[in-house]
Amino acid sequence: MSKFDCIIVGTGPAGLGAAFELIEKSSSLKVLMLDKENFSTGGLRNDCKMNFTFPIGFPEDNWTENEAESYLEKVTEILNPPIKEKHNLETYQKRAEKLGCKLINIRQSHLGTDGGLELIKELTAKLRSRNVEISLGEEVLDLQAGDKKIITNKREIFYENIIFAPGRKGFGFLQNIMSKIDVPFLDHIVDIGVRIETKESSYPIVRDYYDPKFLFPQGVRTFCTNSGAAHVVKEKYSTRDGQTFYSVNGHAFSDRKKQNGLVNFAMLKTVRLTEPLASGQGFVEMLGLQSMLLGGGQPIMQRVGDFRMGTRSKVESFNNDLYDFEPTLKGCTPGDISLAMPGRILRAIWKSMKELDTIIPGVLHPGTIMYYPEIKLYANKPTFKDGHFKVAENIYMIGDGAGTSRGITGAWASGIRAAEGVTG
Ligand SMILES: Cc1cc2nc3c(=O)[nH]c(=O)nc-3n(C[C@H](O)[C@H](O)[C@H](O)COP(=O)(O)OP(=O)(O)OC[C@H]3O[C@@H](n4cnc5c(N)ncnc54)[C@H](O)[C@@H]3O)c2cc1C
């Protein structure tokens, strides 16, 4: 029966950050990485724009600015990102300030989905050459903490330490493990919003700043902007009782690929549930299912022109005529977002979109498309026993699924921090 000094569940950036740090600290450690998918490294496969400035990607409950910046130095050493230039920042910032909004200046790099795949190959080859075992298509099903053992779909494996990094899609899996080993956790913060798709000429700031981070007074922010060869995609989620819903998202290929002249980005509102404390996951599952009901099993899309007029979008709204671009997400249902989204969230997002249109005139062109829902489920808040994200003896939980990050660099940094806990 096999035994490892450290098993890492998940080969996303959090798992990779942990693996690199473990072998850096001690090359003789026996490390196994497992992923249920047949390909490795989770969210690095999507767009791969990396943000290297606090607080982007670093939840402030878990990171101080100094901590994040010092870990970011380590992340930079390994990922060696080409940082993108920015232009006219002050002009945009001044316009934003006049409205009480903020544009944050972030160090960014963008590899694109194709560039991300190349990076993954390079990183996993390096790990394998340093004797890290990577087993793909192997799903962890259960943990028997008393025996220091996990059960996968293929075998039983023993560990000395285990790091769980299963990402956002592993949110429910992590909750099951936490319940089983009595780790108290909260899951009361969620991000809900829309993804906007428009022509680059209606949102030209992307030529000056690849992924501009605006904060609006209503607790709304812009998130994950993609341009060049940009596409809206949908991600499939399962509810705890096995029903399916979709969240939209976006990515772009590198500038080596054919450009489509479109931009997409999310407008997200953070919702913090208080008394009576409800599960954030439960809340977004209901919203996800409601939009599936209204969209006939698909996400909903609506043209800004229709939304303004208070009418639903129809198939004819996407006629490639006045509105001269076609949605990049196929299989989405034209409809009425205001039927599906809670009023308070919708009002906050619409107000923020109007502010954005004042800062960058054009984004509210009638042809601009709003897709719903975009949901971020990364706010599990386990009770950690130390600063290394330890939840129980020899057990660590990191990455977006454990709420220690909200992006590639934060996930990688939380991996380093957990590995430091393992190696002491
Ligand atoms: C379309 C899209 C675009 C994105 N674009 C960006 C971007 O440009 N920049 C950015 O910073 N962030 C982006 N993100 C977010 C980013 O991907 C995440 O923040 C990041 O990947 C989180 O890292 P992680 O290691 O915590 O989880 P993940 O990267 O999700 O990795 C978790 C891994 O664990 C595996 N896993 C889950 N459960 C199990 C199990 N039970 N057994 C075995 N394996 C399991 C999964 O298969 C997965 O490979 C994007 C996300 C999406 C979906």
From TrEMBL:
Molecular-function GO terms, alphabetical: oxidoreductase activity
Annotated FAD/NAD(P)-binding domain residues: 4-169
SUPFAM superfamilies: FAD/NAD(P)-binding domain
Domain of life: Bacteria
Pfam families named among the record's database cross-references: Pyr_redox_2
Classification via InterPro entries: FAD/NAD-bd_sf, FAD/NAD-binding_dom
Signal peptide: none
Name of the protein described by the UniProt record: FAD/NAD(P)-binding domain-containing protein
Source species: Spirochaeta isovalerica
